[in-house]
């Protein structure tokens, strides 16, 4: 065993409770009835006590014809007649064995057994010393086991394993093994890293809280390949403890993929859904804690995300003090999510009504220095009917440079600032259509700024 954890007890140390034993019995029957009961020769158990006695202490049994009793059987152990501390026809005193459990008690004699009507219970202080795990750092795999050592552990009735949504309780019925000094307990598949709570039986049940977390192993992703991958093709996820994975999620896919071509502890092979899109790959174990890949999954034929701009005007929204202006019938939507470039969450959707006149989109600022930059970059996606249409761009009303819109596709443009007669300080960037006659037509702008 490789790891050990200390435990603290949440209840106070239980003190021995000494109760006054019944010295005699008050019987409401007539003397002749009592005499008949005592002389009919049958063993009768009338009472036992004191209540809440501890293991190893003395317990007394009161009744009739008890001198015939040859053995007292507890749940978990028994005491033979030679070990009785004392025995008369009305009283037997014995020392309670350490392995005894809560339960019924039976007095045995040559004439038959007499079993108590009620269960006998005890005051048992349970103490947990250590918890051992098979892995370093207090880690254990879901579905594995932990080994608990201590005293009176056979009085532990259940253990609570942490789960953020629902605590998972393992009762003693499912313990791998149980003794007074050691428990071997299975770890639920859905357990999460957190504290263990032990519950005990006895006259005064205890709740024992683990001082440190039990660390639950999670899957890990080290590689996804091929990358880029074909939609409908096979993707291999490489890592550790991947046999714990129950589902894989990709961007663009509404639900987890739960059917795999193959699965081992180090590899999962699956078919990529047609609707999958750029983004991380996330695996979910039984505990439903997401494990996200460091690499983004890309797709054959798709454009790749571009690096951040040195000075952005628009990138998933207005940036660095820029805002939007327009004239004529041009209408902006700076938070559009219908059409977005790979790696982005929003684009600026501009509606050109195409009345044959001039309209345009203008991004304005009170003045920002661009003297340290050399290029102006932007991405454009053409909506239906825009293919081949031209838009011209200018900065601060300087020279205009035209570019052609491509319908149904993102096109990335990089223009030297020298071509735009760019001044050191920019207050306005204008995108202007060139006399479009049909409309309305939609154009989507993204990643606009300077490098």
Largest sheet, described in full?
Answer: 6 strands, antiparallel
Name of the CATH first level of the largest domain? Mainly Beta
Query: How many domains, as an integer?
Result: 4
> Any idea what the shape is?
rod-shaped
Portion of residues in beta strands equals over 45%
How many helices in DSSP terms?
1
**Helix amount, in percent?**
under 10%
Radius of gyration: 40 Å
Proper CATH architecture of the largest domain: Sandwich
Description:
There is one protein chain. The protein has one helix at residues 31-39; strands at residues 3-6, 44-49, 58-64, 71-75, 77-80, 86-87, 91-95, 101-109, 112-115, 127-133, 139-140, 145-151, 156-161, 168-171, 177-178, 182-186, 197-200, 207-209, 215-216, 220-225, 234-240, 245-250, 262-263, 267-271, 279-285, 291-297, 311-314, 323-327, 331-336, 347-352, 360-369, 375-382, 390-395, 401-404, 410-416, 425-433, 441-450. The protein has 451 residues and is mainly β. The strands form nine sheets. Strands 27, 29, 30, 32, 35 and 37 form a six-stranded antiparallel β-sheet that branches. Strands 1-10-12-16-15 form a five-stranded antiparallel β-sheet, with no helix packed on it. Strands 28-31-36-33-34 form a five-stranded antiparallel β-sheet, with no helix packed on it.
């Amino acid at each position: 065993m490789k790891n050990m954890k200390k435990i603290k007890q949440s209840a106070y140390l239980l003190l021995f409770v000494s109760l006054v034993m019944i010295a005699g019995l008050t019987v409401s029957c007539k003397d002749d009835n009592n005499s008949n009961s005592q002389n009919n020769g049958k063993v009768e158990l009338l009472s036992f006590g004191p209540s809440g006695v501890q293991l190893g202490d003395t317990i007394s049994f009161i009744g009739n014809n008890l001198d015939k009793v040859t053995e007292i059987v507890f749940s978990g152990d028994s005491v033979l007649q030679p070990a009785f501390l004392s025995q008369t026809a009305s009283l037997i005193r014995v020392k309670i064995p350490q392995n005894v459990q809560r339960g019924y008690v039976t007095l045995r004699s040559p004439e038959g057994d007499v079993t108590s009507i009620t269960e006998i219970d005890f005051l048992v202080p349970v103490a947990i010393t250590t918890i051992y795990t098979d892995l370093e750092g207090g880690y254990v795999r879901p579905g594995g086991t932990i080994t608990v050592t201590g005293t009176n552990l056979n009085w532990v009735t259940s253990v609570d394993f942490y789960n953020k949504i629902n605590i998972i309780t393992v009762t003693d019925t499912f313990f791998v093994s149980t003794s007074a000094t050691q428990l071997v307990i299975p770890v639920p598949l859905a357990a999460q890293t957190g504290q263990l709570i032990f519950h005990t039986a006895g006259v005064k049940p205890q709740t024992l809280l683990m001082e440190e977390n039990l660390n639950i192993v999670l899957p890990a992703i080290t590689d996804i390949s091929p990358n880029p991958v074909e939609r409908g093709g096979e993707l291999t996820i490489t890592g550790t403890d991947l046999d714990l994975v129950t589902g894989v999620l990709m961007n663009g896919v509404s639900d987890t993929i739960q059917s795999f071509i193959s699965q081992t502890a180090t590899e999962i092979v699956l078919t990529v859904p047609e609707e999958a899109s750029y983004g991380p790959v996330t695996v979910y174990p039984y505990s439903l804690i997401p494990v996200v890949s460091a690499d983004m999954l890309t797709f054959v034929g798709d454009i790749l995300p571009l690096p951040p701009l040195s000075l952005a005007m628009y990138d998933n929204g207005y940036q660095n003090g820029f805002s939007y202006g327009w004239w004529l019938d041009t209408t902006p939507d700076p938070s559009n999510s219908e059409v977005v470039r790979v790696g982005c969450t929003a684009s600026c959707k501009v509606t050109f009504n195409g009345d044959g006149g001039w309209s345009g989109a203008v991004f304005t600022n009170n003045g920002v220095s661009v003297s340290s930059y050399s290029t102006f970059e932007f991405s454009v996606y053409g909506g239906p009917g825009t293919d081949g249409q031209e838009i011209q761009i200018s900065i601060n009303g300087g020279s205009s440079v035209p570019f052609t819109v491509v319908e149904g596709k993102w096109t990335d443009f990089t223009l030297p600032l020298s071509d735009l007669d760019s001044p050191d300080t920019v207050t306005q960037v204008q995108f202007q259509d060139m006399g479009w006659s049909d409309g309305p037509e939609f154009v989507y702008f993204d990643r606009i700024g300077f490098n």
